[in-house]
Write a structure and sequence with these properties.
The strands form two sheets. The protein has a six-stranded mixed sheet with strand order 2-1-3-5-6-4, sandwiched between helices. It has a six-stranded parallel sheet with strand order 9-8-7-10-11-12, sandwiched between helices. It has two domains: 8-105 and 252-283, Rossmann fold (3-Layer(aba) Sandwich), CATH 3.40.50; 108-246, Rossmann fold (3-Layer(aba) Sandwich), CATH 3.40.50.720. The protein has ten helices and twelve strands. With 288 residues, the protein is of the alpha/beta class. The chain has helices at residues 22-33, 49-59, 83-88, 107-117, 134-146, 157-166, 181-188, 233-240, 248-264, 270-283, and strands at residues 8-14, 37-43, 63-66, 80-81, 93-97, 100-104, 126-130, 149-154, 173-178, 193-196, 221-224, 244-246. Helices cover 38% and strands 20% of the residues. Bound molecules: NADP nicotinamide-adenine-dinucleotide phosphate. NADP nicotinamide-adenine-dinucleotide phosphate (NAP) binds at residues 107, 131-136, 154-156, 159, 197-200, 202, 225-227, 248, 251-252, 255.
């Protein structure tokens, strides 16, 4: 594309952002859509967050993605926050709507769309979610709208209980408890969809898994939201057991797709985004 005086800019802000897959993924999408838009990455420290966010108005940036460690704090500098992001308490996408900054959270929707696009439908299902950190919270909020039962297990029991407590008004039955071998074995025996939203198994600890392989079955769907490595120990074990597996790259792609739809009103070209993200992962030496 030719970058001209009319080219609009989207960006990701965070610290660090050097390894983010978002620039290649989104630039590939904008090119495919024929939009006069570019996507760049800005390292923004916590002390710089306010001026960076307010600067997006001054510079007329079209939109932002927000990554660690700013997903919570950024809310303080927005004009409006949509209900889902408000409930989660975290924003990962900002639309600059003619000078009004509106915050969204596309992580949970990204995870649920990733499941559906891989043939896994949450309705009337039981989901077991391991983890109660930032990503788990976003997924739990979205999943609780769709599944029949949601069980949240976390190393720190208090966080699992707090998250479950926050979701008590949802239609789904939601419980939160400590992650232990016995509870895991018991809950997993009646689970349809297992989601790992912890960092267990992430590079460099690639031989670790939050679930013993002998608990995995062919009638399970297993999603691991980690994408480095692309195929985690958990996903390898699940595949060996004959389960349906969904990688963290799928969640990354679909949370980005929802962001593109917010910024441009265009349906995102997910196949192009997947190819671009996969190529970038390979360039970064990630096991694919
Ligand atoms: N695919 C995507 O689009 C996407 C998006 C966001 C994040 N992610 C990935 O998701 C993972 C979690 O990210 P996050 O932002 O939610 O991080 P976070 O807020 O720091 O939460 C980390 C979670 O992992 C648990 N955990 C960490 N070490 C553990 C261990 N040794 N044993 C058991 N549990 C452990 C934590 O439990 P405690 O509460 O007990 O500490 C917590 O539940 C990361 O790998 C990140 O790269 C992927």
């Amino acid at each position: 594309m030719v970058i001209s005086a009319k080219t609009k800019v989207c960006a990701i802000i965070g610290d660090p952002v050097e390894h983010s897959l978002s620039p290649v993924m989104h630039n590939a999408a904008f090119k495919e859509l024929g939009l006069n838009l570019v996507y760049v990455a800005f390292t923004v420290t916590s002390t710089e967050l306010k001026t960076a966010v307010l600067g997006t108005k001054t510079l007329g940036l079209k939109g932002l993605n927000v990554t660690m460690p700013h997903k919570n704090a950024v809310i303080n500098y927005l004009d409006e926050v949509d209900t889902t992001a408000k409930n989660i308490g975290a924003v990962n996408t900002i639309l600059n709507n003619q000078g009004k900054l509106i915050g969204y959270n596309t992580d949970g929707a990204g995870a649920m769309v990733a499941l559906q696009e891989n043939g896994v439908y949450p309705e009337e299902k039981k989901m077991l979610l391991i983890g109660a950190g930032g990503a788990a919270k976003a997924i739990a909020y979205q999943a609780a709208q769709d599944v029949d039962e949601l069980v949240i297990l976390n190393r720190t029991a208090k966080k699992a209980k707090q998250l479950a407590q926050m979701l008590q008004s949802c239609d789904a039955k939601v419980t939160g408890t400590a992650l232990s071998s016995n509870v895991l074995k018991d809950e997993l025996s009646t689970t349809d969809i297992l989601v790992n939203a912890t960092s267990v198994g992430m590079h460099p600890s690639i031989d670790c898994s939050p679930v013993p392989s002998d608990l995995l079955r062919s009638d399970l769907c297993v999603m691991d939201i980690i994408y480095n490595p692309l195929k985690t120990r958990l996903l390898k074990d699940a595949q060996s057991a004959g389960a349906t597996v969904v990688s963290g790259l799928e969640m990354l792609i679909y949370q980005g797709a929802v962001a593109i739809e917010i910024w441009t009103n265009c349906p995102a070209p997910v196949a192009v985004m997947r190819t671009a993200a996969l190529n970038q992962l390979k360039k970064q030496g990630v096991q694919c």
